[in-house]
Amino acid sequence: MDYKITLLPGDGIGPEVVGEAVRVLEVIASKYHHTFHFAERLMGGCSIDTFGSSLADETLADCKSADAVLLGAVGGPKWDDPSAKDRPERGLLALRKGLGVFANLRPVKAHPALIDSSPLRPEKLKDVDIIVVRELTGGLYFGWPKGRDVKDGRERAVDTLEYYDYEIRRVMELAFKLAKGRKKKVTSVDKANVLESSRLWRQIATQIGKENSDIQLEHVLVDTASMKLVTAPASFDVIVTENMFGDILTDEASVLAGSMGMLPSASLSESGPGLYEPTHGSAPDIAGKGIANPIGTILSSAMMLRHSFELDNEAASVENAVDEVITDGCRTADIGGKLTTRQMADEVIERLQ
Ligand code: IPM
Ligand code: MG
Asked: How far is the centre of ligand 2, averaged over its atoms, from the C-alpha of 263 (Å)?
């Protein structure tokens, strides 16, 4: 089969890790007789420098016409001025909204061989296998009104936490669907004791829970959920939550895996191309040194094979190769080793051939 993949390497370590994921995809293509057509575009800070915009219209159009999009990371100190009219992060949000990728899947597993890389006690990490489904195109990130003004002589800033029923329903249905192929448990995280939007969230979660009686549904308040993620992480299977709660909880959950550098993500829409990106950021402190961990991006490309191309065997072969690499003790700096980005990817590629 033929697939068109738009690459958005972005800033910082983005180009280094995307380059390695592309090498892995090329190996998959030749082994399983597929053709991947890669088109590289600028996005984020590098796009501000070249086009004056963090996401150019043509770039978004290219992404929309692709079968899938692979993104590295965006941002860096150069573009951090809070008064700047554009920021790399704005491009990322515009890309998510433009592609309509409402569900962000962030799986977190504690690989047995990496348990010592986590600051948590080993016995807590046994059997941790979580997937967080974060709503990605609504809530505080996009709600209106939003902005700053001066009211009664005082400076004021406003963000709005808004959800429509359909936005909650579609992400909830996806969470239940995922749970069917897993341990059959959904934890819906909200703040229904305080927020009106969370009361709608919980109402819809309850309705969908009734339609899926084979799945165990629990409601957990976000503050409690953040505590349980470190005290009883193995009690979770699928976690589904709104955009901002999901942003915070997924950084917390990444600690369970030992390093953020290991973690992939997939952002899915109703029918268009999916967006795949590692969970980590642009890591400006190590950019250009060739020492970043490419595994998060390599596993993101495995998620692309599975969710956008329905190539389950190909996806599993990448995931198994990564598993072996970790079991065999191959380590980049973030997980206590000395391998370079290229060497780590070479180890994966060797086990794919
Ligand atoms: C993430 C990041 C982004 C977010 C930032 C870079 C805008 O933290 O993908 O989790 O908040 O969604
Ligand atoms: Mg985040």
From this structure: 12
